[in-house]
Write a structure and sequence with these properties.
Elements (H helix, E strand, L loop, with lengths): L7 H15 L8 E3 L6 E5 L2 E11 L11 H17 L4 E11 L5 H18 L2 E9 L5 E11 L14 E5 L4 H18 L11 H8 L5 H9 L6 E4 L4 H12 L2 E5 L7 H9 L4 H7 L6 E5 L4 H4 L5 E8 L5 E4 L5 E3 L9
Parallel strand pairs: 4-5, 9-12
Antiparallel strand pairs: 1-2, 2-3, 3-6, 4-6, 7-10, 7-11, 8-10, 9-11, 12-13
Helix pairs in contact: 2-3, 4-5, 4-8
Bound molecules: adenosine-5'-diphosphate and magnesium ion.
The site of adenosine-5'-diphosphate has 9 residues, from α1.
């Protein structure tokens, strides 16, 4: 007799999470939202509490041969705070779970915490606990974050309506190209340890990979402008994947325009240098941690001149039609690249 065995790679990350979600039922009336958004939403009297966890593993999410430990600490915190930003909330506390192999010294852990503390200070967040354990497989960092928001201000993935404007902050694809540059320099170094890394022309993209920021600045500005995005998600896996999450959760179609997708010049040039198509990188490169959101057309006046918010398309009523209009006018279906880690 053989037990049935299904490969996780077959199901994919999102298929697996869906399977878990289907068998979970919420018992407490305070659990307003469980699995399925950037953070859980918990009723806490006047406000809601937001809760999210993200884990970074050595060899999967980072490579210590080019990731300085301070940057890693900073990034581990920033990417978690990004999920609270994506709910239109304000992060307040974090806890840190650490798995350490005996390769790591006390000094190494201190460097890591320098970065963690720098992020806490920058985002005004308190480190309030965690857990420390031995690890058989290098460094593991798991961060949980608690945030807060007024119930009526929370932006869910499910809230987009037809004929709304799709916005994205900053620029896309940079973190992915930064990773390509770092990988290339690592290979050069491995074949010739006396070689000096050539990062000079790639400072911007390398910075996007090593030191991402959560866009709390945008969250505060939207609050000042009295705008609540109708839906929101952060761009951790790539624009294509994230816009499909919004489209599916909100049951609307999306139309994006290639010429509106923000790509930094440095990202563009680096992509060409690697013989990659910049728009493919912008659509599918991960780890930019920008915010992708929809707004009601009546809010457009308030943000139309914002230098860091880009209007990349609109929603429509055919939920099955999620397309990118190329510069030449071709209609290209948007497809997620799937999960790279499995
Ligand atoms: P994000 O990219 O914003 O961090 P994920 O794609 O990791 O979001 O997760 C999507 C949703 O699935 C979230 O609500 C998250 O809490 C939930 N989730 C992910 N992994 C698990 C798991 N192993 N068990 C339960 N819920 C999970
Ligand atoms: Mg997210």
């Amino acid at each position: 007799m053989h037990e049935k065995r299904s490969e996780i790679a077959q199901l994919g990350e999102f298929g697996l999470i869906n399977k878990i979600k289907q068998k979970v039922s919420l018992q407490n009336s305070s659990s307003l939202l469980g699995i399925g958004d950037d953070a859980a939403v918990i009723d806490a009297g006047d406000d809601c509490v937001l809760l999210s966890t993200d884990m970074l593993l050595e060899g999967i999410h980072f490579d210590l041969s080019y990731m300085p430990l301070q940057h890693l600490g900073y990034k581990a915190v920033a990417v978690n705070l990004s999920d609270i930003a994506a709910m239109n909330g304000k992060p307040e506390q974090i806890t840190i779970g650490l798995g350490l192999s005996n390769r790591f010294s006390v000094e190494a852990v201190e460097l890591l915490y320098e970065g963690i503390r720098a992020a806490c200070e920058n985002y005004n967040v308190d480190l309030v606990g965690g857990d420390t354990t031995a690890s058989a497989s290098g460094l593991v960092i798991s961060v949980s974050v608690i945030g807060r928001a007024k119930k009526e201000k929370i932006a869910y993935r499910t809230g987009a309506k037809v004929n709304e404007i799709i916005c994205v902050t900053g620029d896309l694809g940079g973190a992915y190209m930064g990773l390509q540059v770092l990988n290339r320099e690592k290979q050069v170094f491995l074949s010739d340890p006396s070689a000096q890394p050539d990062l000079e022309d790639h400072e911007y993209v390398v910075g996007r990979q090593l030191k991402p920021e959560a866009r709390m600045d945008i969250i505060h500005e939207l609050a000042d402008l009295n705008i609540v995005p109708t839906s929101m998600i952060d761009v951790s896996d790539g624009l294509a994947s994230e816009i499909l999450h919004l489209s599916k959760a909100s049951n609307v179609g999306v139309k994006l325009f290639e010429d509106k997708i923000p790509i930094d010049n440095n990202t563009f040039d680096t992509a060409l240098e690697f013989k990659l198509d910049p728009i493919v990188i912008a659509m599918n490169g991960g780890e930019d941690y920008e915010l992708l959101f929809t707004i009601n057309q009546t809010d457009f006046e308030k943000v139309k001149n914002h230098p860091d918010i880009h209007f990349i398309g609109h929603t429509h009523d055919n939920a099955n039609q999620n397309v990118l209009i190329s510069k030449a006018g071709t209609v290209v279906p948007i497809q997620a690249q799937g999960w790279k880690h499995f």
